[in-house]
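During the practical work, I worked with a single protein chain and the tokens that describe its fold, as given directly below.
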Amino acid sequence: MLTILLVTLATLGGVFAYLEYSVYHETPTDTQVLNADGAKTALVIYHPGLTDYARNVTYTYAEALAEAGWRVEVTTPSPQAPTDIAKYQLLVLGWAIYDFGPAPTITSQIQRIGDLNEVNTTIIIMGGGLDPFNVKDQMNRIVEDANGNVIQTITSFRSQRNFSLLQEEAAKLAP
């Protein structure tokens, strides 16, 4: 009986470790530019997550910004992502909630940037349908503590598929 318990615990521990790695490892990507001739520049950093939902949400918002006249640079958090944000008038941070808090990859990117220099910041939180520990407030504090200016916090739950809300919110930020 003890052997079965130990094997079960070891298996569950291995599965948990794999999921943690899969969810929160940094995935460097090249920076993609949308609307290269935009009037002002936005940097969009998102953690891709396990499915394409985070990418779809992020690009829905980024494309709406581009249509509103912004030059939009989209990337994922990593040491290769931009850390000098002096040329950006808007920072957008997005991730899917997995462990009831802000994604470590996003918070690590904020630490790499350091001082956000009061740049206007939009936070996009994606989840399956609930926010049990109010990640919104946690992330707002993290951005404000890094000297960022939170101007929008948008929650996009998979159950709602509210892509039109993302487009509406992005359209409000004319450059």
Q: What stands out?
A: The mean pLDDT is 86.
